[in-house]
Structure formats: C-alpha cells, structure tokens
Amino acid sequence: MVKLALGNMTKVKGRRMILLMVLLAGIAFTLHQGILSRSSTEPCGLACLRHDTRPFILTTPGCSIPDFDPLHPSVAKFRVTQPKEYNCSQHRPLTEVRGLSLLLHRDRAEEYGVAKDELSCVYQGIVRVEQDAENFTMDCDKLYKLKKKVALNGASTAINEDGVIVTCYGRIYKVYQTVHYFLQPRRSKEKRERFQKEHGGQRRAMLSVLIMGIDSVSRANMRRNMPKTFYFLKDELGALDFQAFNKVADNTNPNMAASLMGLTEKELTETCQPKRTKFDDCPLIWKNFSDAGYITVYGEDDPYSGSFHYNRYGFVKEPTDYYNRPYMLVSHSYTKHNAGLSGSFVLCLGGEKSISVIHDYSLAIANTFRDTPYISYYWNTGITHDEVEWASATDLPSLEYLRKLNESGVLDHTILFFISDHGIRFGDIRLTYAGLLEERLPYFFVLFPPWFKEKYPEAWKNLNTNTQRLVSNFDFFATLTDILTGSYGGSSRTTRHGQSLFQEIPINRTCEDATIPDHYCSCEHSSQVEPDDPRLHDAAEYVVDQLNFGMTAFPECMKLHAVQVVRGQIGTSHKGTLKNMLTISVVFMTMPGEGMLEATVRKQEDNFELTADVSRINMYGNQSHCITDPFYARYCFCQDLLTTLYSNTSSEAPMNMTGT
C-alpha cells in the first residue's frame, strides 16, 4: 500500500511538473508574442524589455566596449515603470490637410463649446523672410511674416501657401489655433520632370534616403525606455542595428556636421564657418543629392535648438526644397504648450505631439514623392533633450510612425536611417560609468528595401559584419556618399574620414582609425583609480587653467576653481607609439556654480594636452546669461550672479580636491 501510494504520488508530481513546464512555456511564448502583437496603445511592461545583455557590445582586437544591462543597478532608476504619457488636446482638430486643400470640420465645433453657426475661422499664409548675411539674426519675429487673414467659409479650401496658421473663434474668444504645411508642387516640379525623363519613373534606379533622428537617446536608453520601437525595428522590420556606433563630438551640431559633411569641428570652422554663424556655404551632402536630381527636405520640431539652429547658428537662405522652419517658428510662437506639465520640454504644438508633427510631415513627403527620389532629414529635440526618462514618451509615437511607414509601401524604394546623435549629456546618470558610455553610444539603425540583400549580396554581407564593428558619424557620411553614386557593390568613393558601411570595416579598427577623439572613445583602454589619485588632481587643475585662459576674453565670467574630483580613469593612449604617454579621464566639480565637468587629457612626463572639448555634464541654466558665445556658455559663471549665490549659502569651509 505504501509503495503504491508513493508510486501514485510520483506520477501525480510528474504530471504536475509537466503541466508546470507547459504553463511556463506558454507564458514565455505569450510574453514574446506580446512584444509583437500588443496594441499600440497598451503600456509596455517588463515583457518588452529583454535581458539579452552580454559582457561586451564589441570585442575586437582594436576595441572592446562593455555592455551594461539597461537595468544595471547603477542606472535602473532611470527606467520608467509606465511610459510618460500626456494629451495635447481633448478634442478632435477643427482643420486638417488633404493634399493641397484645407478641410474645416464645423461639425466638431461643439467640442470646443461653440455652436456651428457661431464658429468663424481664418487662415494666414506664412512667409520666410530672407536674411541678410551681414546682419544675420535669430530673432523669431524677424524670420517670418504672416499674410492677411482669409476667411474659411466652405468645407474645403484650396491653399497655395507652403504653410498657414489657422485661428478659429467663438462669439468673442479664440478657441482653436494650429499650423499646417502644404507640399506645393512648384518646389519640386523641375526635378520630378527630370527624373521621369531620365529614368522613366523606375524608382529603384535612385533610392530615396530618409533620416529620422531623436535627440539625446543612447542605444541602451532606447532598450530601457523605448523597447517597443527597438524590437519592432529589429524583429519586425529587420533593420540593421549598429551596436558600436560611437559619436565623434560633444553635442548635436558637430556630430551631424560629421554625418552630413564629413568634417571635424576644426575643419567645419576652417571650411565654411569662420564666424560660427551661417551654414549656407557648408558642403552639406544634400546639396550633392540635389545636383543629382533628388528632392531635398529638412524638418525639425524645435526651431531653436535643433541640428543647425542653436544660439547664433542657422541658414541665411532656404537650405532645401522643402524647409519647415518658418512654419515651426510660427507654431512655437502661437501654439506651443506642455499639456499642463512643468519642465523645459516642447511636448505639444497645437493639438498634436511635437514628435508626431514631424512624423506626419515625413509621411506626407514619403507619400507625395513616391514617383521621385528624395533625401529628407528630420530631427526631434523637444521631448528627449533634457531628461533621460522622457525617451519613453517617444516610444509609442515612434512605433506608430514606423508601422505607418512600413504599411505605406514606400520602404520598397527608400533607405531609412533611424538614429540619434548621442546619449543624455547631463544629469545624475552621467555620474555613472554606464552613463558615460551611454552618452557616447547613440542608437543607429538602417533599414534597406527587402530586395536589396538579393541584388547586392556582398554589400549586404559587409553591412551585417559591420554591425559588430566600431562605427562613427564619418562612416555614416561615407555611406551616404556611396548611396548618392549607387556604389553598393563596387568600390567606394574616398572620403576624408570614415569608410562606407558597404565595405567591410577592419576587425582591428581603433578610435583613431575611425576619427573618434580619445575623449569620446568608448573602447576600454583604462582602469578606474581612486578619486584622491594626485594625477587626477593635476589633470583637473590643468583643464581649469585652460578654461580660465579661454574665458579671459569674457571679463563678465568668474574665474573657475577645481574643488572636488568625483571619479577618474587612467590608461595608455590609443596611439601607443609615444613612450610614457598616459590618457587621463576625470570628472570634477568647479566653483562658483558647482559645474560638473568631464575631460580627457594626455600626459607625457609633465606635459598635458586636452584631447577634445571639455564636457559639461550637469545643467547650467542661466549661469552664463551674460555672454552669447555657445562654446564658453557651458563653463561661464556670470559675476552678477555671485552675490545671489553666496547670499543663499551658509559660510561653510570650502571643499577639498577629494573624492565623494
């Protein structure tokens, strides 16, 4: 009886174990399928975050880059449990664009508290004001003008403007305002006719190029806070994930100059920006595409702090055939809001999310120019620039955009670059080693038409190989150059820096080979040392001396003092050819202003040399309001703030150059 009972119990336990295994397998399958089939409006939980981390992103003879889990203890707190969500409007829009017509939906007036017969709407054309090269200004009011108001009477009105602002009123009050764009055929008529004549409408003869960027999102943070987009690109679309894409400069401007011109910061100034203002004379690659017959497009959600518009930077003349900045300036002036949330974000433009405005603009371009090749460059800054967690707010909009793009069929003749410029550059995450790496490693995906790998097998093989090689912005530029000439299977054109991704990148490639300055190089070549190491102290003092020397041109700024080393690393130089050469990376605090700076210097005997710009890794707000120089604004602490600073602090003893 006992044996029989035990045998039955064993059978029961066995069945339970089998059932448990089946149940667990079912759960695992369901979770995996949930990533792919989950509705676009459902929050993304832990099921969307795969723990596919390995010890190294890259491990080659020339470079090893550690791979931190997106939920590594040092950075786990920067993942949101629920994506950042907000609504820009509770109502359906009163107007929308259909082709070259503006539709008015009077039947929606009651949603705005207005009777249909009381609603009155007008539109005004938006015109870009041509700038004078000698008196270039970034004053918003001088960069556009609004035409006279025209009443919207019918349900559909033909529009001959490139952009309009629409305003609707009830009896007395304004109830609705938004900006619309129109892709007027006159801007591309000649190129469309030329393409039809030379290629007979064969779209695969010249592939379109679509570059869609989101500011300040590392590949790791994309995995952490944009998992739906990340895995949709990889699993559904089959996009190539260049995991070791390493930035070459500090912020957006010089990184995109490297990507779209193939120039270093120094070369940029020497070549086309002696006054650091206008970009008109710069060799932007879309000029070459334009000469070859491509329609050119430029669109950004933030007209002040995007790729080529920051402080005194900008274009005197329209740089592309379709250029949305004048209309975006109006949108920011009249319709920008943050959905009732605090912060320096640009979340909403009228009733639409700022990122969705750019997505819709991109989709309109793609659908309008199915019959003609184009190169388009889009950038989204407003949501993600300031806080690492806000990348989550772009996950669902980006997923929806990619789905619409894929379903439209335009990807059959388009190469999509889905990219960022760098990771978050300041804040608490930058005080971690994982955060340091993230800042240098933005995401970089490339999606080719489905037929490409069959037609160009060698190029496809090299592209896949290069996803596991060290890659930089200069390689992006070289690749665009090859796309322009259709050099997918033959020899690449030579560029000053970088190598086309259609050619295999050497396995022993180093940061120096890729024209990545030591300061931004993610390859492990050094080891952590204690914060009280005197070599870190000496390096910090040297960096501050250099900054103070540069700021002698700005007497409004206080002299800086290095007061505390936070962390540092010391190793051998990448070059490895100079005897006793050390590379020292140090993070330290300066006073006044509590500036947190990060710098990389080379030291040989008693001689120091900065390898690149000094990074400011915490926000400086209005500390440098007394100067307009975009470079030194990162370090300057205005003298007129000193009284305020010390009136709000206790008389404590000054800090020493010791670790935290």
UniProtKB/TrEMBL annotation:
Q: Which GO terms describe its cellular component?
A: extracellular space
Q: Please give the InterPro entries that the UniProt record associates with this protein.
A: Alkaline_phosphatase_core_sf, DUF229
- Which positions make up the signal peptide? none
For this protein, the record's Gene3D superfamilies field holds: Alkaline Phosphatase, subunit A
- What protein name is recorded for this chain? DUF229 domain containing protein
- Source species: Penaeus vannamei (Whiteleg shrimp)
